[in-house]
Structure formats: structure tokens, C-alpha cells
Design brief:
alpha/beta, globular, 34% helix, 348 residues, Rossmann fold
Amino acid sequence: MATRWLICGLAVSVAALGATARPADHSWVPQPAVQSERPPEPPDFDLMLRQQAETDASWHRASAGRMRMAKIRYRSRLDDLDIPAFVFEPLVRQGAGRHPALVWVHEDIRGHLYEHYIPYVLEATRRGYIVIAPEYRGSIGYGRAFYEAIDYGGAEVDDVVTAASVLRRSYPHVDPSRIGIIGWSHGGMIALLAIFRNPTAFGAGAAIVPVVNLFDRLAMKGVERQRQAIDPHNRFGGSPGERPEIYRERSPLFHVDRLAIPLLMHLAANDRDVTIEESIPLVRALRTKKPHLADVKVYATPPGGHLFDRRVREGTWEPETSREQQDSWARVWTFFEARLPRARQLTN
């Protein structure tokens, strides 16, 4: 499978991508409780707990009669921190070792499993997938200690990778050779780092509008402001100029050589969060170094930009169904169905 570098089905040059216009978009989009990489100041932990209870209730209502839902906790493989996670299963199980599974990684460093994922998780279980969605350290809704345990690009990746081990250990109806991972934005960055650092943990991975380069990101968005957002406790030990090796280790761009499994990546040229300028070097590296593993598509001006594939209708949680959204999800399902073969045995 050759790497594809597409906008709306047409091959384009990198220069043309950089010049793509970014029109304003005024359509309604469900807004996260905390905006991407901008934690509340000061944090209101009581409010976060109430919001999490409301979110859990929304997921229970959406699941009723349509899929099984459970809320679990598991111990991260890195330390003694317990990680909350949602688990969703088809109503009818097919038997031991029969179901493929997905580790579902939410967006936002101060986020959680938002309700706008409801229609897509429902579709996953309808297709026979068991989905585990870890609320990795730093997520909102689980108290001060969990919030302050944030380790951007570090321990949070171990929290997510552990979810694959939980599926293998505790869910005998999951086929251990057919576990994939998918993430969005910051969660897309985690998904990339997870597959680069753990080449045998997953059969395939998808990263949608992922953060890829902390050097560029901090330079474009403001070094000190971004450092406060991603590393409020100075676990990195300094700025990019002072500790470049830390920022490099936590930037997917610099680890393309480690890619050993099929990867799907979707980008939006009108993305105002993870800009196409940040993403272009990763696409170049994938085209050059991993042309038979990486499948990349860039959408030119999808409604919603950064959120184009997750936009839903107010009050119903139904997909917006723009052409780009439909195309992206169709490609996601086709990708995983083709890239999680039964015969391959994986270890974690």
C-alpha cells in the first residue's frame, strides 16, 4: 500500500498545501468543556466531576439497547496510577477470540471521552468492534491528583498502551491479533507515539489531525504559554532550547523510522489548531521512509477544519454527514477491516 498524499482525490504539491486558504466556518460544533491545550485557570475540580457524571449518563443513555457499556479502571503499566476507561461492546458477542478491538484515544490534553464520539463508537460496535477508551492521566473529571499527573507524550502513552493489554488479559472474546488504535489531535499524537514505541502492541493505527512536532507547535503558538499547557509541573525540565532531547522524544515527526504496522492519517488543510505547516514534514517523512505502510489523505476545506470528522448535530448526537466526514470514516472502517488480519499473533 503506497502512501497517498491527496486533497479531495487530487494529487497536489507540498507548496500548494501551504498556500491553501482557510475560510471561516460558522457551523455549530459541540464544544469540549475545556478547549484544546488550554486548561482552565484556576481549575474547578467540582465542576469537572459534575460534568463527568453528566457525560457518563449521556453515554449510558446512548448505549441503552444498542451496545454494552461499562466503566472500568486498570493499573497503568508504568506506575501505580489507576486509569479510568470506557468499554463498549456489541450487544451480541460472537464467541471467544472472535471480535476485533480498538483503543480509542480522545482529543485534548485536558479532555475526556466527549459525547460527540457517540455515533462513531456506536458504528464501531455495530461493525463488531470492542472499544476501550482510556481516560489517560491529565484528563478532566477524575479529581485534582489525576489532573496534575499530566505527562504530555510520556506516561500518558503508557496509560493508553496498557489498554491493549487489558483487552488481551480480561476480554477473552477479543482476538488478540486484531487490536488497533485510533486517536484525534492530542490523542492522535498519543496514538502515533504508542505505535512507534510499541511496534508489536497493535495491528494497525489511525491518527486524525494529530499533533506531530512540539518544536514547531511551541514556536508558532508561544513557547511559554504552550509549556504551561503541556508541562505545568516542568517534567520536561526546561524549554525546547534547554532540553531538546525531551521534546524530540515526544514529537512523532522524529520517530517515523520506528513505524512497523499500517498507519492511516487524515489531515485538514484548513485546520487552525494543528496547522498543515506543522503536518507537512511528517507526511514527507512517511512518503520517503514508509511508503508501503502509511496511507495519508489531506482534505482541503472540510467543514469544521480540525473537528471535521467529529461534528455532530445539536441535541441528537447524529453525524453532520458532510462529504469529507463521510469519506474519512468510510476510509477508517475500510482500513481497519483490511489491516487487522486474524492469523497474525501479536504480543504486548
